[in-house]
Amino acid sequence: MAAVSGTQTRLEVNVGMSGEQTLAQTLVPSASDSRAIDLSDCTLGEFRILRTLGSGGMAQVYLAEQTSLKRNVAIKVMRSDFGSDETHRKRFEHEARAAAGLNHPNIVQVFAVGEEENIQYIAQEYVQGANLRQYLQKKKPPTAHIGMHLMKQVSSALHAAHQAGIVHRDIKPENIMVTRRMVAKVTDFGLAQLTLGGERVNLTQMGVTMGTPLYMSPEQVNGAAVDARSDLYSMGVTFYHLLSGSPPFRAATAFALAYKHLNEDAPPLQDLRPDLPPSLIKVVHRLMSKDPAERFPDARAVLTELKRIEKSGETGGSFAQAEEPRPSESWRDAKPTSRQLKKYGLWCLAVFLIASGAGRDLRRQNPLDAPVKTMTSVEIEETAQEQVRVAMSLKKGPSRSERQEEAWQIVIDEFPDSRGAVLEAHRELGLLQLKSRRYKDALAHFDELARENDNRWKADGVAGQAVLAMLAERYEDSHELISIKLANHRDLVSPELKKLVAEAEERNSRFSSTDEIDFESLFESPVEN
Hints:
Blueprint: H1 8-15, H2 23-26, E1 43-44, E2 47-55, E3 59-66, E4 71-78, H3 86-100, E5 110-116, E6 119-125, E7 129-131, H4 132-138, H5 144-163, E8 166-167, E9 176-179, E10 184-186, E11 193-196, E12 199-200, H6 218-221, H7 228-244, H8 254-263, H9 269-272, H10 278-287, H11 299-312, H12 338-363, H13 384-393, H14 400-414, H15 419-435, H16 439-450, H17 455-471, H18 475-485, H19 495-511, H20 513-516
Antiparallel strand pairs: 1-2, 2-3, 3-4, 4-6, 5-6, 7-9, 8-11, 9-10, 11-12
Helix pairs in contact: 5-7, 5-11, 7-10, 13-14, 14-15, 15-16, 15-17, 16-17, 17-18, 17-19, 18-19
């Protein structure tokens, strides 16, 4: 039998079955043997099963290798006790068809759907990470910035699904995976309600209401028709749970829980997390409105509002663009405007009058009363541009570090109105002091950059903060800065800092507590539905 070629001995050892059994029979434990079946080394089409990852409500999940492409995938194999149930078989098929039609970075991608010896399976993207429920079990509720980051990605995923006519119907922490780089991926479209060719496919027959009671919308609880806004309610409950640390409603029975979804308001999130921005709290509570009409009209509207909040800087991690973006040409090459030339002319006139008139009185004053200039080994130039060129030229030569610092400090002290030059000086001083292990001094310069609205300078500031956090052995803080705040702006980081960020990432991976978690083993326990 091709599907199990070379695997019979392994199967006999694990489950004590005879060599005559088929692959389908290996999925059905006998009444006298309830041990979990091990399909390691079995083959389903071009997929070689490596080991068990876990099991869900209707499928067993395995790690497998796609032999043609030499990549790891997750294989969902329909549970044997559902094999003879036509309703469940249809649900499994529709899950595959629904997810296979979606191609989005925040949705777990389906690669193939197949059947081998009457065993249905789905091959999908293998996500190395944890779901939101496991995230909460290992960590405290995230900051507003991380919560916003994940909500935006889930909203984007739901918008793509809803545009394709798919309502997920089972949004919950277990169905939102998070990678180490904090990329959220929605999975399990097994409860999706599809509209195919104008025909409504109803998979809630025999009075069974699909979904998970902790996160179900009021209309799901009532068994009424649902639309995309039902997913928004479930997303609101999910992120209420994520941000507060517990679901908004708890009860001893599913019926009592359903009653609360229908009739009770969730405790104010503000009382549980007073540190969260009021606008973010407002979004979560609006998502959980009992009346679908009072929620956001669609997932795109949610995403738009989240972006607005992030751009406002309320979450403390915005990379919002400055109101007056820096021009594309370098500040060093910028040409003076007519207003600047006019001001310069008036200034020259004033200087001339002082020199020719009032200057005579000044010369009669005691020379000892003149202010003393700070002695420096670096000459002070006439313009910020010239001073920057001097600082850059000092990268070579003896005692270059001290003289460089002096030259860059002159830029900050003597030319405070030349903002581009001052910011460049902060970056270079941060790097110089980082190299000389004066970390506190370096942090002050990177903090200054991180407060900027211009993304190019802000990215350098955050990069420096991340490197310093790693050096202080705050690996999770460093990882968060890199994976969240720098996520969309790494290409703006200057080359020297970019190299340091890469080194920080490597060190974070080796020493952070995040990496001490065996993400793969997290999926070895059954996943609740």
